Amino acid sequence: MMTCRECAELLLEYLSGELEAELSERIKLHLEFCPPCVTYVETYQTTIRITRQLPAELPPEVEERLRAVLKEHLQ
Amino acid sequence: MSATPTHSNGHKFTPEQVFRQYAPRVFALARRMLGNDADAEDVTQDVLLQVVRKLDTFRGESDIFTWLHRMTVNAALALRAKRARREERETHDPLDHFLEDGQHGKAVHPWSVPPDQQALDKERGQIIEQAIAKLPELYRDTYVLADVEGLSNPEIGEMLKLSLPAVKSRLHRGRMLMRDALAPHFEEVAT
Q1: How many domains does the structure of chain B reveal?
Q2: Residue A52 burial (CB < 10 Å; 0-12/13-18/19+)?
Q3: Distance separating alpha carbons of residues A72 and A43, to the nearest angstrom
Q4: Is B121 part of the contact surface with chain A (CB cutoff 8 Å)?
Q5: Tens-digit pLDDT profile for residues B114-138
Q6: Closest-CA residue in chain A for B173?
Q7: Within a domain: residue B76?
């Protein structure tokens, strides 16, 4: 039986579908009987999802200084 | 000027358009890699001046996008090396959190976060930014390029001069550390 640590170690390749079939089946089997690992996988995936939602922001004072430099350069 | 790069809708890019469209992304990437606004501003200025100088040489939007990522990463790594501020923080392996028998060392609780289509609120955004800033550099660069910028593992390997297995290993450990750092903030309160 696969341990929780082994399951976590292979998670990236399992979720991206790159893991060989036999290992993938062993993880699926482990997840059937291990609620903490199911939650671990869900929260690992949530981490990726919410990180991708981060906005790219430019503070107004930085924008002002950068515009001034760009303007000077273009003149 | 000839061969000015074109927007996907066929219009030519002007320096103003490049600034509006890309300056926030360049700054955000540099800040996440370097961990402070002042260094990120230096990198953004450097990258923007170079892109404006080379505007005639780009073949289109995707060309600029790829180039800006590469330039920002290179400039951020160069600045980090120049300032010799490479951290000496101990980089522990998140897999060490598991017990010797392979079970979870801490209880794993579900999270309460908004659904996919709902934008992150400011407070949650700050929590995630702080967790990124605390990631060891070893994992942070890979994590930011993959999970914030959405670059592929081969693209990251090329930019950071890492093998594909090294990119995957660092990314996975970065994600596990991020998960562990966010868990106390996002776990559902037991009723």
Answers
A1: 2
A2: middle
A3: 48
A4: no
A5: 777 677 888 999 999 999 999 999 8
A6: A9
A7: yes
- Domain span holding position B55: 15-82
The C-alpha of A39 sits at a distance from chain B's nearest C-alpha, in angstroms, of 6
DSSP 8-state class, residue B149: S
Please tell me which residue of chain B has the smallest CA distance to A40. B108
Q: How far apart are the first and last CA of chain B?
A: 66
Give the closest residue to B146 by CA, choosing from B174, B107, B181. Answer: B174
* Distance (Å, whole) CA A6 – CA B108: 16
Tell me the pLDDT tens digit for each residue of B56-108.
887 777 778 888 999 999 999 999 888 765 555 567 888 988 999 999 998 99
Q: Does B29 touch chain A (CB under 8 A)?
A: yes
Chain A residues whose beta carbon lies within 8 Å of the beta carbon of residue B186: 43, 46
User: Which CA distances in Å does A10 have to A6, B75, B175, B190?
Assistant: 6, 33, 13, 29
The domain segmentation of chain A, as residue ranges, is 4-74
End-to-end CA separation in angstroms for chain A: 69
**A30 to chain B nearest CA, in Å?**
12
Q: What CATH number did the domain enclosing B127 receive?
A: 1.10.10.10
